[in-house]
Amino acid sequence: MQDLKILFIFLSFGATLAFQPSYLTHSTTKTYQLLSAVDDSPEGRGYWKVSEMVEEAASSSSSPPRSSYNVFDGSLAGNSDFRGKEFNFDPLELASSYPPLVPWFRECELRHGRTAMLAVIGFIATDFVRIPGAMYSFEAIPKTIDIHDALLKTGPMYQLLFWVGLWDLLITAPAVKAMGEGEREPGDFAWKWFAPTTDSGLAVKRDAELKNGRLAMIALGGIATQSVITGHGFPYI
């Protein structure tokens, strides 16, 4: 019975190895030491030999060790503050822990930043002007902060959900697939009609977009919070 328990522990651990990066193989050694303490009999040693083979195979992987990987090296932008000084901010070490997901992280950051920049403009603009239609008027919805809930009841928000979902299905999904295959950079939809013609100029614009997007995400949270607290529109005081 004890042998079955030990075998179950080892098999469970072996299954989790399939989902761990190769630079986490030091956990294999720790688990080997733990299992050795459980059963030090000659019969139990067979399981530990297999564990040693798993450890040896994982340690020979070509993936870069965690300590030598720096996500801020190379062509990735955004590792500077608003003064232009280097600022490598990754307190949870997500980028260094999951290198294959770094392009996806950047894609999400760009999308959220672009959405937030548009949302800040829309949040402020709707305090002064509305599109035609009684349901959008100031009489129907006096405050911008109430627009979301009001338009959920009348239906337009569901139309917005449909068009955003259609965009993700037809555009975002293939774009992300191409990014995973190395055929596309994060956030690149080939809309460069007004982009700088030089690589250095484009790099400056990309860095500016990242910083403006980050600022907009913070600003949008502040606008919504201030609007709820004060009950006032722009400038929300």
Characteristics:
single chain, about 240 residues, mainly alpha, Chlorophyll a-b binding protein, 2 domains, 8 helices
Question: What would you say this structure looks like, in words?
Answer:
With 237 residues, the protein is mainly α. It has 2 domains: 2-59, no CATH class; 94-230, Chlorophyll a-b binding protein. It has 8 helices and no strands. Helix 5 (102-125) crosses helix 8 (199-230). The longest helix has 32 residues, at 199-230. The model is unreliable at 4-39, 44-48 and 60-69 (pLDDT under 50).
- Per CATH, the architecture of the largest domain is Orthogonal Bundle
Largest sheet: number of strands, sense, barrel closure: none
Q: What is the overall silhouette? A: globular
Measured distance between first and last alpha carbons: 70 Å
Number of helices: 8
Q: Ranges with pLDDT <50 over ≥5 residues? A: 4-39, 44-48, 60-69
Short structural description:
This protein has 8 helices and no strands. By secondary structure, it is mainly α.
Give the SSE map.
Layout: H1 2-17, H2 26-38, H3 45-59, H4 94-97, H5 102-125, H6 147-154, H7 156-180, H8 199-230
Helix pairs in contact: 2-3, 5-8
